Amino acid sequence: MRTYAGHSTARDSNVLYRKNLEKGQTGLSVAFDLPTQTGYDPDHELSRGEVGKVGVSIAHKGDMHALLDGIPLGEMNTSMTINATAAWLLALYMTVGEENGVERKVLQGTTQNDIIKEFLSRGTYAFPPGPSMRLIADMIAFTVDEVPKWNPINICSYHLQEAGATPAQEVAYALSTARAVLDQVRERVDEDTFPRVFGRISFFVNAGIRFIEEHAKLRAMARLWEELGRERYGVTDEKMLRFRYGVQVNSLGLTESQPENNVIRIVLEALAVTMGRNARARALQLPAWNEALGLPRPWDQQWSLRIQQILAYETDMLDYPDIFEGSKVMDGLVDELAEAARTEMAVVAEHGGAVEAVDYMKTQLVESHRERVRRIESGELKVIGQNTYTTTEQSPLQTGEDGGILTVDPQVEHAQIAAVHEWRSQRDKEAVDAALTKLAAAARDESQNIMPPTLEAAAAGATTGEWAQTLRDVFGEYRAPTGVQDAAAADDGTLAELREEVERVSEALGRRVKILVGKPGLDGHSNGAEQIAVRARDAGMDVVYQGIRLTPSEIARTAADEGVHVVGLSILSGSHRELIPTVLSELKDAGADVPVVVGGIIPRADEEALLAAGVSRVYTPKDFEISRIMGDIVRLVAERHNVAAAA
Amino acid sequence: MSGRDLGRRLRERDRTAAAPALNLIETRTADGRVQTAALLAEVSPAALGGEAPAHVIGITGPPGAGKSMLLSALVKEWRSRDRSVAVLAVDPSSKRSGGALLGDRARIEHDPRDDGVLIRSTAAGTMLGGLAPPTREAAQALSAAFDIVVVETVGVGQSETDVADLCDTVAVVVQPGAGDVLQFLKAGIMEVPDVLVVTKADLEDIALRARRDLAAALRALDARDTPVVLVSSVPPPSGIDELVDALDAHRAQVDVTASRVRARRLAALAEFTLEHGEIALRALGGKRETQRLLAELDPGKPVAELVGELERQRS
């Protein structure tokens, strides 16, 4: 039992961890900030507004020491949500262990390390797919003997569901990812070791509100996993074939309106992964009820921990053997899902495997998500409190001084920047340079394992940004597919009125209404931006959308040079207070005098500040009707250019 | 801001005039057309005292050939040679809704603070397989203010004709293993480009084979002098400086004045036909007669004035 936590500085997170351990938590789950996840130091331009925001900032081994201070690493099971830079963070963790006299053999934990889903959903990648997969294979080959209790990879179907995947897609894409990883590792370890490698692969899955189907999904996944082990890899040891998974239940379905209902959703979703013993989660993480509003406070997290404790200690769920054994309904559901997933896996294999099929899978996810959004907008899919039963009494939960969420002190960023400067001036520069030179050489030579030089760089005091930049220089930069290009045009007729208005305004302007959809900063959650881009296109606008990770000056320059009439920005990481005003002033400097609308997880207090700063409209998750947003945008453009309203 | 002012500022190589000039050129209202004509008159050979100095380069090739990576590398190389670059990316997507997703396909990495680079994407709109009039006008306008103007399009085959008409140099980009270009070339569906670029040279053997096959096809077409350049955008990038040299070498040997005059006449013919239709063309005595009429007019006149002359002749 644990809650996903970590914020601001290593020292603050350390205090939080110690508190949680006292409350009965049995492991650590470390959340890193976006610069750490994407391999940038706190003083990098792209890090602006993100330092310490969605997790803790770890720039070097000194930060890792502070994070783990006083925590007995030999007894801890530590889960690190880290992917592109997983090799680096594991190296820092091992280094801190070593410098505290803890042998690597006893270290226990997990690095998430699933890069495919970063390209598909979460966006915190750093290197192109090929080299990224090689880093993963290197880590697995290294840890299987050196850090034998470590789960080097935790394949995530979780984020696929968040990006809109259907249950069959979720299973198929996650297992295809596992297959791609295993194929690559197979070349790097000897035959006798391979079954142990297979046994060390674990999964991180999602559980949505359709909790019966979700339970069936897990049973199907376990069946397919065993099949894959036996048939493709010749694994026979039952223990190694077992499907091991942890869960974070669904965040996509959590609502901003009437957020207290989310507690009920979370409980039901937790049941999906616990009620049947044959497919029960090894570890369970529950989101906080108010996640769609902003960063949860310690109290919110405690509430989620209590859900798990009540399920485990008060209910009789754990007293019985598998309660679905022999159930025709459950077996039928499992058969159906397994078959659908097998079919989809075959399509991925036809593309050449998960790495080559990234574009294909991304397009499928954008399509599935669009269908989901459409069903919610039309009311076909009922979401209580959002599109059904929307009237509510005043909630006493959101009236506190802090408005019901946690805010991060912006000073954290300044302090971290000063600290990393200080760190760089104090260390042995020559040792760092020598280690990074070795790292670059290993990166160029596929026959070498990246871990030893990475450990050397960690011990020498290199920074996260230096490690990643060294590899970027060798591997090249990469930009993941957006999946929007091939999204089919909507033709359900609901857009007719909107299209007509876009045509009318375009004709009055003399050229087609043109919108820039931008994602400033390191936040990689692009589902919202993608849906906006596709809908704007379907409404008849010319849409400039360039994917994630843009600096404010890139956005401003593009807006000006592309001659757009309006700019839409999407931020979900909570860095809107820093980034949006910067974008506004950069737009002004670039000579782009256009209305700006913002969408994201934006607390009410910030909404007012953004409007005051010059933003025309702010949209939050409660604004689920995208077509209405489009109507607003066209109106804004018309007003700005003195186009009269339609008669 | 009037079209005349924007044109004058472009002539003075004022970078800040470029985006508003493009906005104006795309504006299809009556006033927009009048202002655009005024703008283009300010950057015409008459106003400039000669053809616009830019090297207008067409870069075309099938989707997935690696054009955006290539352009990112090219832009960097041109900037290191201190040349300013404008890229007009023509996006083929044209959906039932009329809207298009732009910029995603061809995102070109560049320093947003560098005024020497401008990237503009436009939807091809209804001009399937060709260039929309605004693209031609945009290239002409930007030619006055930038050292290099790139017109980037997707396609292999007949769609290059428009690009070839507009540009001083046309480079076709192919990736190794893609046989289309080779087949189109052999079958004569595609005109021989001025430079052939084979991307993904890091795939050593198949890239070399692609170059060999293309070179053989070019020999058979009696175009053995057409350079075939291998480039790789994967670090360490290679071949980019050779490509820039090959583009420069081509430009040095073409008669820019003749090709620009020809381009303006073809544009005038296309625009006249678009505006007034085939009936008007027949009223002038048909396509060949119209071309003859155009050839008699002042070669330095901007397109709009050529079209105006044709309109007067018709009435």
- Supply the CATH class of the largest domain in chain B: Alpha Beta
Annotation, overall tally of beta strands of chain B: 8
Multimerization status: heterodimer
Give the distance, in angstroms, between the N- and C-terminal Cα atoms of chain A.
61 Å
Q: How much strand content do the residues of chain A show?
A: 5-15%
Question: Structural class per helix/strand content of chain B?
Answer: alpha/beta
Rounded Rg of chain A: 24 Å
What's the level 1 CATH class of the domain at 156-356 in chain A? Alpha Beta
* Average residue-wise pLDDT of chain B: 88
Main sheet properties of chain A = 5 strands, parallel
Which stretches of chain A are low in confidence, meaning pLDDT under 50 for 5 or more residues running? none
Helix count from the secondary structure assignment of chain A: 25
> Which architecture name of the largest domain in chain B does CATH use?
3-Layer(aba) Sandwich
Give the largest interface: A-B, 45 and 35 residues
CATH superfamily of the domain at 156-356 in chain A: Methylmalonyl-CoA mutase
Counting helices, strands and paired strands, the structural category of chain A is: alpha/beta
Write the CATH homologous superfamily of the largest domain in chain B: P-loop containing nucleotide triphosphate hydrolases
Globally, the shape of chain B reads globular
Instruction: Give the low-pLDDT segments of chain B.
Output: none
Characterization of this structure:
The complex is a heterodimer of chains A (647) and B (315). Helix content of chain A is 50%, strand content 9%. Chain A has helices at residues 10-22, 34-38, 61-67, 86-99, 116-122, 129-146, 158-162, 167-186, 194-200, 211-231, 238-241, 261-272, 298-313, 328-350, 358-378, 411-426, 429-444, 451-460, 464-475, 496-509, 527-538, 552-562, 576-589, 604-613, 626-640, and strands spanning 28-31, 77-81, 108-111, 150-151, 154-156, 202-207, 245-249, 283-285, 514-518, 542-545, 566-571, 596-600, 617-619. In chain A, the strands form three sheets. A five-stranded parallel β-sheet of chain A has the order 10-9-11-12-13, sandwiched between helices. A four-stranded parallel β-sheet of chain A has the order 1-2-3-4. In chain A, helix 21 links the parallel strand 9 and strand 10. The mean pLDDT of chain A is 91. Chain B has three domains: 1-49; 52-253, P-loop containing nucleotide triphosphate hydrolases (Rossmann fold); 258-314. Chain B has helices at residues 3-11, 18-26, 30-42, 45-48, 67-80, 133-143, 160-166, 180-187, 204-220, 240-253, 256-283, 287-296, 303-314; strands spanning 55-61, 85-91, 100-102, 117-123, 148-154, 169-174, 195-198, 228-230. Chain B has a seven-stranded parallel β-sheet, with helices on both faces. Chain B is globular, with a radius of gyration of 19 Å. The mean pLDDT of chain B is 88. Classes of the chains: A alpha/beta (647), B alpha/beta (315). The A-B interface holds A 473-477, 479, 482, 484-485, 489-491, 495, 499, 502-503, 509-512, 533-534, 536-547, 551, 553-554, 556-558, 560-563, 591 and B 16, 18-20, 22-23, 26-29, 32, 93, 95-105, 107, 109, 112-113, 118-121, 123, 233-235. Strand 10 of chain A pairs parallel with strand 3 (100-102) of chain B, so a sheet runs across the interface.
